[in-house]
Amino acid sequence: MDFQALKAFVAHHDNFEIRVIGHAGSRFYQVELENVEGSRHMLTRAGKPILFRSLDDVYNELRRAGIHRAYLVQQVPHDEVIGRETHYHDPLTSRMPLVF
């Protein structure tokens, strides 16, 4: 989903979740939208996921789209090594609410 599609989606829908995904050992962040049907869409540019260098960059981009809340999700290598899916909906164990 590119930025214009994200902005249009936010203008017409109110039941979705934005996740700011960070990977342990990396200084980059990705943004993902999940709608009520459970479909997940990464924020992309020219068909490739956008990597943000800081949370401030993420906040500025999401504010431009009219978004002021998201969840910070930290994926750790342990989950990847053992092949376990990360559990985003566990309260405060794998995600932290952000308001900007």
Structure classification: alpha+beta
Oligomer: single chain
> What is the tally of beta strands?
7
Percentage of residues in helical conformation: 25-40%
User: Mean of the pLDDT scores?
Assistant: 87
Low-pLDDT runs of 5+ residues are: none
Span between N and C termini? 22 Å
Strand content: 25-35%
Organism: Halomonas saccharevitans
InterPro entries: DUF6482
Protein name: DUF6482 family protein
Write the layout of secondary structure elements.
Layout: H1 3-12, E1 16-23, E2 29-35, E3 40-42, E4 44-45, E5 48-49, H2 55-64, E6 69-75, H3 77-81, E7 95-99
Parallel strand pairs: 1-6
Antiparallel strand pairs: 1-2, 2-3, 4-5, 6-7
InterPro entries: DUF6482
Protein name: DUF6482 family protein
Pfam family, one: DUF6482
Primary descriptors:
100 residues; alpha+beta; 5-stranded mixed beta sheet; two-stranded antiparallel sheet; DUF6482 family protein; DUF6482
Describe this protein's structure.
It contains three helices and seven strands. The protein has 100 residues and is of the alpha+beta class. It starts with a helix and ends with a strand. The chain has a five-stranded mixed sheet with strand order 3-2-1-6-7. A two-stranded antiparallel sheet has the order 4-5. This is DUF6482 family protein.
